[in-house]
Amino acid sequence: MQLQFSENISLKPYNTFGFEVKAKYLIEINQVDQLKALIKSELWIENKHLILGGGSNILLQRNFDGLIVLNKLLGINVLQQDDSSLIVRAGGGENWHEFVQYCIAKNWGGVENLSLIPGTVGAAPMQNIGAYGVEIKDVFHSLEAFNLKSGEVETFTADDCKFGYRESVFKHELKDQYLIVAVQFKLSKPNAHQLKLDYGIIKQTLAEKNITEPSIQDISEAVIQIRQSKLPDPKQIGNSGSFFKNPIINKQQFEELLKEYPSLPAYRISDEEMKVAAGWLIEQAGWKGYDENGVGVHDKQALVLVNKGNGSGEAIAELARKIQDSVYSKFRIQLNPEVNFVI
What we know:
It is an enzyme of class 1 (oxidoreductase). This protein is of the alpha+beta class and 343 residues long. The protein is built from ten helices and 20 strands. It has three domains: 6-71, Uridine Diphospho-n-acetylenolpyruvylglucosamine Reductase, domain 2 (2-Layer Sandwich), CATH 3.30.43.10; 76-196, 2-Layer Sandwich (Uridine Diphospho-n-acetylenolpyruvylglucosamine Reductase, domain 3); 238-342, UDP-N-acetylenolpyruvoylglucosamine reductase, C-terminal domain (Uridine Diphospho-n-acetylenolpyruvylglucosamine Reductase, domain 1, Alpha-Beta Complex). The strands form six sheets. A five-stranded antiparallel beta sheet has the order 6-7-12-10-11. Strand 8 (130-131) and strand 9 (134-135) form a beta hairpin. Helix 6 packs across helix 7 (216-230). The longest helix is centred in the last third of the chain and has 19 residues, at 313-331.
């Protein structure tokens, strides 16, 4: 199979921060047979490589002296169904939000709370993306992943993926060893929708619209409205959404902090653990709206680091380190990036 590569290509369109960095080589993958040919090629063997989906959760700090592989594997189809649910398979290169909207148009429930999250279907389980009370693991059935060493397509169950908070086996033990070909989701039919309305801001937004019996479409529209009010559009100002994970601390530490900071927002994970709002911590540490070296902290949501137009990945990385040190000094809480750093 003939493979077509681009050389010395700008990655600005392929990362939502919009950093002007270049890759030595780039190839788009549209079918699995291309992958089989690719891993046998000299270009693959002789160069380091990086797989990109939507480029929405990645920090490119400098030019990439190697091969960028763009996952463009597409297609959505129903594999099986019964009276109340169905298994839907989506290609790893599908745009995540467009997939969600496709499901809503078909009245398939389960992913509506995950509307407007940037990225691709293939990246979703890698990060175990989540928002407003729902994570990928809640609707996950299985995935197909191409082994970049053996050339075989392997199936992973939820247990195989080892999902955690914005974590999976593909970020740790199996990092850079697989390309996710497709993901299968278990979604609900209209007679079996189980709406997730635990987050007060969703209830509030629906109430403002005088919606008392919401549909999955209503929830999706509410989530989109909420996200647009809080998070900047990467097309307008470069960013990767939430830069840090919301930290999880033990109950004792939370109760001690609450004495000094009564308004500290948190969500109970278990009897012994609380998830604390990272954006609140960053704002309280004085970083909201901060600006330096062409990068900064968004003035509406402190959890979002932004490229003001002439910044660099290295400047974002340095700003992130300063924020981590500042928050730890003030609260004794370690912030960990949600974004993947590429050096």
